[in-house]
Amino acid sequence: MKKIRLELVYLRAIICAIIIVTHLLTQITLKHENMEGGSLVLQFYIRNIVIFGTPCFIILSQLLTTLNYQKVTYRYLTTRVKYILIPYILMGLFYSYSESLLTDTSFQKQFIENVLLGQWYGYFIVVIMQFFILSYIIFKINYNLFNSKILLLLSFILQQSFLYYFTNNTTFHDTVLHYYPLSENTIIFGWIFYFFLGAYMGYNYERVLNFLERYLVIMIVLAVATYFVFIALANGDYWNVTSFSYSLTPYNSCLLYTS
């Protein structure tokens, strides 16, 4: 029988609230198209402080999986289709309908672009569903792979390398989008480290708690420090705020620990 861990229930609720706040701030920014100068820079930094919602949701989802299971059956996937994918589609139907009215475009066009291709705020569900499949495959191979420090390191290198070249190399960026049919934010290589970090934390949950009891202050200092590193690496595009960024990976990871 799975043990209910209230701290994770509360954490999931907080992360969901953070995701909502992130999108509210985005809408506020978009409604002030003439924002410039200090106001634009300030909103950029505030939005990036709370941008950790999606990465932390990915980490927490996999943490809960490896914490609660040592083996899975096909029901693991069907349950997630029932309780995550179907609600995603239903909410997408309402969203697509409202967008078709607002933009005077066809419902079919909105549904394909938003729900199927992931070009809306619910894109992270598309990412998580891909990771559920990956998790199922790894469980079938060997559960102990979730405890691999080598895989954790390789996933970090893969994610950072992918995001760096995707952001800074036009040829690489265009080639990826040419062959990848969905929204660029749903490419799992840009989130893969968060998946394995969550898996490792779930596998070693008690050790993680003991670590935080001893070094919480250090982790908080690291979170603040990594945010200032992000500020130092900012390229001056104060309109573009996304967690799909190599410069935010250390900050997002530390935030989950300090939460």
UniProtKB/TrEMBL annotation:
The GO cellular component terms are: plasma membrane
Where does the UniProt annotation locate this protein? Cell membrane
Q: How does it sit in the membrane?
A: Multi-pass membrane protein
Q: Which InterPro entries match?
A: Acyl_transf_3_dom
For this UniProt record, the keywords arranged alphabetically read as follows: Acyltransferase, Cell membrane, Membrane, Transferase, Transmembrane, Transmembrane helix
Q: Which Pfam families match?
A: Acyl_transf_3 (PF01757)
A GO MF label: O-acetyltransferase activity
Keyword Cell division present in the record's keywords: the answer is no
Q: Which residues cross the membrane?
A: 9-29, 49-69, 81-98, 118-138, 150-167, 187-203, 215-234
Sorted alphabetically, which PANTHER family does this protein's record hold?
Answer: O-ACETYLTRANSFERASE WECH
Q: What is this protein called?
A: Probable poly-beta-1,6-N-acetyl-D-glucosamine export protein
